[in-house]
């Protein structure tokens, strides 16, 4: 057996959950899709209503809502009430991680009204938004102005708060970094009810750098100021097929985003957008895009593809056609390009509705897509949820660019999941060491894609049922995730916390750096008010006693001490 061949596994005996999952599409079509469409429509009407308000009126409502949160925090009795959590239902989160921490007694604070765009400042090129503003909402407002957030995560439902406190990426992250790297100011309500504005150069600069990846455990985010960039009406997208082994596919991907001469900051050599999809161990399609004007897109002979229409082929399948017809170029309306993966949830839609990619479904019911992830989670019981944890993979592996080939080979051996999504991002060298940070000394290696101020990383997105599961063989999902996490720790990689994690506390802080985070927890009074980030991400139920004991012991934990 070659190094890349998956091990032979015994057949797995089917149980009742297998059949329920197999026919779950019935519930999705007749329950989840209609309700999802209704929610999307009502949310859209709410966004339109908000857009019609003046910025002054929105700011007034914002100030009133902030006062309500401050007053609510002051009502908490630390000796009697549980730790502070938002009042959002556990299934609402887009991520696959179970929000089990809300099963312990907790003190709820309602942030549901914080869903307005507060200002679009064209002079400062800043959008000031509340945390529940999602990507579909902000792009609908900014793109007609020929403006955009520097990093627009692909799925419409992803919110500003989730992308800041957690993790956010897009095909422009090889220029601008992760979503949180494009934020210039945070407005945070601290444990004592103070409202502070944190920037990289004011008195709260330590808090500014600690907030990303903290999962809302340092304070309550109520607004953020985010960088805007000028954009054009279309994306000129080139689809380039790559054939070879996994290391050769990885090198083709690296060459599509990183000039071999090291001229990484030259816009003539580096495209505006990059992503690659690995369809098999020997086939991939690299896509690189540049903004283009309406006049250029509509020139004779150019192909315009409005991928946002409900009847269009799913984007990942459309891109796959390059493997047969060779390299080609087309122009996609900018906003439709941003949200190209929304309708099919990358390729997860194929598992949820196996026939939803067929032409007859797309034309007749495609306008109902996609199902809301929150409703999919709300309509599954404990048994189905555990089934997906064991028989399904939704993970992102953030790895140094030069290790992408090794990561692909690891995924093939251990999980055998295809397609795989590759998206590059910069990991900046900052004045302080944050939870995620580049490899020490990377700037002296001058590897392809790196600069003196940032190391190039890649998100290796692994989303689908593993090959052994599709073949009816045994597969231990929890053990596979544990091995993945160990591989990431050994290779200076990171696991976004929206996903199901098997990390124990010691390994969690081997993967992430605790020094600045714990410093801010103590300095700003988060200990005893907000749950620690590890216990918020930890898999399984959390009892109130367990959480409180962990809070009391955190100062004595050797692997959480400052370096």
Automatic annotation (TrEMBL):
GO cellular component, one term: cytoplasm
Enzyme class: oxidoreductase
Top-rank taxon, per record: Eukaryota
Species per Swiss-Prot/TrEMBL record: Stephania japonica
Molecular function (Gene Ontology), one example: Delta24-sterol reductase activity
Transmembrane stretches, start-end: 23-46
Enzyme Commission identifier(s): 1.3.1.72
Keywords: Membrane, Oxidoreductase, Transmembrane, Transmembrane helix
The protein's name in its UniProt record: Delta(24)-sterol reductase
Localization, UniProt: Membrane
Signal sequence bounds: none
GO BP terms: steroid metabolic process
């Amino acid at each position: 057996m070659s190094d890349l061949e998956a091990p032979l596994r015994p057949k797995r005996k089917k149980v009742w959950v297998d059949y329920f999952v197999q026919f779950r599409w019935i519930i999705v079509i007749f329950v989840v899709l209609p309700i999802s469409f209704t929610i999307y429509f009502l949310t859209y009407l709410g966004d339109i209503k908000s857009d019609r308000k003046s910025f002054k009126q929105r700011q007034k409502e914002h100030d009133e809502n902030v006062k309500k949160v401050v007053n609510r925090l002051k009502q908490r009795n630390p000796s009697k009430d549980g730790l502070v959590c938002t009042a959002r239902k556990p299934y609402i989160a887009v991520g696959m991680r179970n929000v089990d921490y809300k099963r312990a007694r907790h003190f709820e604070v309602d942030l549901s009204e914080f869903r307005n765009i507060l200002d679009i400042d064209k002079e400062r090129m800043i959008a000031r938004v509340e945390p529940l503003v999602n990507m579909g909402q902000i792009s609908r407002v900014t793109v007609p102005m020929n403006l955009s957030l520097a990093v627009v995560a692909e799925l419409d439902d992803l919110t500003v708060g989730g992308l800041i406190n957690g993790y956010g990426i897009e095909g422009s992250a090889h220029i601008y970094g992760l979503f949180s790297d494009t934020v210039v100011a945070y407005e945070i309500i601290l444990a004592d009810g103070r409202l502070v504005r944190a920037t990289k150069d004011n008195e709260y600069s330590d808090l500014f750098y600690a907030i990303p990846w903290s999962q809302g455990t340092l304070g309550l985010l109520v607004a953020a100021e985010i960088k805007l960039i000028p954009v054009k009406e279309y994306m000129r997208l080139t689809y380039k097929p790559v054939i070879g082994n996994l290391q050769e596919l990885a090198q083709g991907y690296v060459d599509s985003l990183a000039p071999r001469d090291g001229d990484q900051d030259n816009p003539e050599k580096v495209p505006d957008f990059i992503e690659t999809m690995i369809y098999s161990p020997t086939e991939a399609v690299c896509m690189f895009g540049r903004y283009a004007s309406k006049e250029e897109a509509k020139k004779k002979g150019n192909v315009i593809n409005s991928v946002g229409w409900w009847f269009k082929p799913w984007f990942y399948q459309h891109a796959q056609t390059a493997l047969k017809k060779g390299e080609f170029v087309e122009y996609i309306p900018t906003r439709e390009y941003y949200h190209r993966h929304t309708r099919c949830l990358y390729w997860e839609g194929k598992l949820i509705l196996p026939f939803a990619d067929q032409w007859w479904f797309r034309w007749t019911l495609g306008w109902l897509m996609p199902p809301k992830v929150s409703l999919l989670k709300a309509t599954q019981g404990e048994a189905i949820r555990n089934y997906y944890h064991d028989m399904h993979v939704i993970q992102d592996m953030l790895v140094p660019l030069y290790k992408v080939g090794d990561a692909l080979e690891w995924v093939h051996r251990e999980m055998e999941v295809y397609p795989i999504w590759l998206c590059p991002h910069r990991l900046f060298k900052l004045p302080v060491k944050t939870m995620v940070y580049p490899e020490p000394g990377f700037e002296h290696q001058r590897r392809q894609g790196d600069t003196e101020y940032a190391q190039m990383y890649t998100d290796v997105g692994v989303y689908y049922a593993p090959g052994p599961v599709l073949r009816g063989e045994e597969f231990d999902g929890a053990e596979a995730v544990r091995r993945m996490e160990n591989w990431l720790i050994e290779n200076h990689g990171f696991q976004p916390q929206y996903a199901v994690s098997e990390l124990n506390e010691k390994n969690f802080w081997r993967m992430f750096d605790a020094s600045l985070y714990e410093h801010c927890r103590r300095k700003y009074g988060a200990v005893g008010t907000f749950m620690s980030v590890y216990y918020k991400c930890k898999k399984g139920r959390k009892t109130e006693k367990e959480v409180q004991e962990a809070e009391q012991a955190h100062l004595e934990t050797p692997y959480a001490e400052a370096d």
